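Milestone M4 deliverable, item 7.
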Amino acid sequence: MSENSHDSDSTPATGPDEMSDVTLDDRSWVAPLISSVVTVPSGLLALVYGALSPMECDSCNGAAADSFHDSWTTAWTVLWIGLILALIVLIASWAVPHQLRYAARRVGLALTAPTVVGVTFVAFMALVDWP
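Output delivered:
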């Protein structure tokens, strides 16, 4: 036997039947798209509401105004951080590879993004010391 002889049983098969982990998911875009349709408008609404909420205390003065302003500043920071986190999670749901084995991860991220917006908005509302 020469050195260049090749045993056909020693090479691994790389046909489509053996590579089931690389099966493409034809509907990989559905969960991120639905998440985008829900997350982006709700995030923008939360941001607009947070930005307009200082008008609630236009007629406040003294200690009530100071308390509202201090709590609103903290809550506004929390709102921005939460919305940025939701955007990162939304982008991650689009960035997950479009393979069938990553479908659960993609759907989980897609569900997490609007949930983060909701939790962030509730935290904003709870942190503000409303007059």
